[in-house]
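Quick start: read one record
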Amino acid sequence: MTPGLLVAAPASGSGKTTLTLALLRCLRNQGRAVASVKTGPDYIDPAFHQAASGRPCFNLDPWAMRPETLAAAVARAGEAAELVLGEGVMGLFDGAPVTDARGLAGGSTAQLAALTGWPVVLVIDCKGMGASVAALAAGFAGFHAAVPLAGVILNNVASPRHEALLRTACEAAGQIVFGAFARDAALARPSRHLGLVQAGEDGDLEDFLEAAAAAVAEQVDVAALCRAARPARIPGAEAADSASLVPPLAPLGQRIAVAQDLAFAFAYPLLLDAWRRAGAEVSCFSPLADEAPDPAADAVYLPGGYPELHAARLAGNGRFLAGLRAAAGRDAAVYGECGGYMVLGQGLEDAEGRRHAMAGLLPLESSFREPARHLGYRRVCLLANGPLGAGGAAFRAHEFHYARVLGEEGPPEKALFEAQAAEGGGDARVGQRQGSVFGSFLHLIDGEATS
């Protein structure tokens, strides 16, 4: 198996994304074949990873993925690569309010590290910190025996004197310091309500990646960090290969048209890759460019994204909307997740309170005028037979959006899923189905394990 490492942090905002991107581009510039993965349900960071490494980034979710999906995804990520560099999520031990047999939070970077055996490199934001950094590093290193800590990268370091103080304290406590990254406001990236502004919208991305790569090459012992990598020891990964990657979700059809642009960017690369490997023909179209789905497609997939930022443009794109209606008219499966679900509705109200007519294929009015955050893992059960599977089929999913539904989401008898929180409870009927059109605010990740 290809050796791997996980870049994690004590908390969100510590700089792990910047350091991961810098390392990916640095290794790529050195001529190394480096692949990347992202822990958990994230669509934005993987696009930056791909820009940095030149390879698709696959998500690995230890709570939402079946063991066989996770094992095959680990093998797939490492194909034709010398190193797999993974980025963690939130703080190292943060995750869903459910724990595994080891006592680790579901979906956490720590859970993935324990399952794969990949060592963790801890990025510590050292602003306002001195010798106390050693206690923090030692605490994380000794917190759980199943989570191996290879060493630390000291981030947000103010001066050479500050670096010397931090290094001395960590090394005296027995912690390996791979490097110290100097404070540099120029390496910050712009953000919005769901995370970083998307890679495709960042006109300065290449300059940032090259500057970050140069900085990390100078300030981090990249060779020593790579030597700390270890092959995955996840059960089943040794025997797994591309052919063993069963699609996390069954292909929606034989010829699937996938919306893909800045308004519909939230599709997992692993899912599309698995559909293609299962024999489905996947074509992409851009609703923002007023493109219609392939008229020969027997399925249309509208993933999530930021349609609320482009609502007026989408409402005026007649070829796109007519193409959706035509697909529904010929009984092609038309599936929308989150942003895609809203576009299948009657109308979408933007943050200024302006209503924009959408495809009108589902009885849904959504609004961003008074945003309310909906966030968390979900367990879901399909309420009726359809392209996603037979009624009763169970899935694991994630929800993250700020939209509100105006009025009722839809008649309960036409709901798509029965859903509950990861920890149980909060049962609710969500989503809608009408003819061959269906969707919900949930992002499906994988089928539920049957044993």
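The mean pLDDT is 93.
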